[in-house]
Amino acid sequence: MTTSNYKKVFKQLETKPVKLKKFLKHSAPKDRKYGARKHRCQRCGRVGGHISKYGLRLCRQCFRETALELGFKKYS
How does pLDDT run across 15-66, given as a tens digit for each residue? Predict the structure, then answer.
């Protein structure tokens, strides 16, 4: 079960409040306070390949798509 769909089980556990409470305690994703998984891309939500320099908060793929609009120049 991935962290994005842990709430799908709610429908099955509606009639069993004790089991629902236990499920929520053990299956909900942790709130991150630090580390690589805390920083998400502002545009698409990816957590890998994050560029936070200059306050961009973008993943590398989104940065490549929007670099010219942001005023960056490609040197090659």
Answer: 888 988 888 888 777 788 888 778 889 999 888 888 988 889 999 999 999 9
Give Cα separations from 11 to 6, 16, 17, 47, 58 (angstroms).
11, 10, 11, 29, 35
Tokens read off for 13: 């556990």
The first and second tokens of residue 63, run together, are 């940065």
Q: Which pair of structure tokens corresponds to residue 17?
A: 């409040």
Residues 6+ apart with CB under 8 A from 47: 36, 37, 39, 40, 41, 59
Examine residue 33 and state whether it is found in any structural domain, yes or no. yes
Domain that holds residue 17: 8-70
Residue 62 sits in a domain whose CATH number is 4.10.830.10
Which class for 41: exposed (0-12), middle (13-18), buried (19 or more C-beta within 10 A)? buried
pTM over 0.70, yes/no:
no
